[in-house]
Amino acid sequence: MGENLTFSIGDSGRSLELPSHWQSLETLPEDTPGTVAFGYRSAGSYAVVTLGPLDGQMMPVDRDEVVEGIQPALDEAGATLVEADAGETPGGDLAVYTIVESDAEDAQDTEDTEDTEATEDTGDSEDTEAGAEDGVQFSLTLNLAIDNGEYLQPFLVQGYFTSTGDDEQALDQARDIAGRVITA
Asked: Using one digit for the tens of pLDDT, what is the confidence trace for 129-146?
């Protein structure tokens, strides 16, 4: 098997180390400068995750406030909050994250329309084949504010973990990434 994958978390001096089943991916032109992307594909699930500077306001570092704030959108989308947490990390940073479960087909409908247009043009995309077997998708959103000595430097981790038969594997991978970032 391959080597572990390691990414710097901005210029914070922190690193995120991932097991060997993760692979580095190309970022998109619209990703914030400094963003890295990584993913995996297994028999039971696959994922795409980005980690980069947060270009906007951080979620409140209060679990109840986050849950109250996102619940209307979850209700409208027919999605379920699996877990949410907020507080200080073991390293003294601030973190808040949510993991939301939705039907993978519904989640795919809300993704970038460029991918949909490309699939419609060719008709034989690998994503189309995988989508036929997709079960649920777990979306991880994690905000991390690292004290760099002068100010809190905010980062965003956004991940989509899709089941192709093993819902628990997809959820476990989402939880693993959250834990690895929080303890980095």
From this structure: 444 468 899 999 999 999
Q: SS in 3 state form for the chain?
A: CCCCEEEECCCCCCEEEECCCCEEECCCCCCCCCCEEEEEECCCEEEEEEEEECCCCCCCCCHHHHHHHHHHHHHHHCCEEEEEEEEECCCCCEEEEEEEEEEHHHHHHCCCHHHHHHHHHHCCCHHHHHHHHCCEEEEEEEEEEEECCCCEEEEEEEEEEEECCCHHHHHHHHHHHHHHHHCC
Q: Phi first, then psi: what are they for 27, rounded to 5°? A: -85, 170
For residue 73, is pLDDT > 60? yes
Q: Count Cβ atoms below 10 Å from residue 167 Cβ, excluding itself.
A: 18
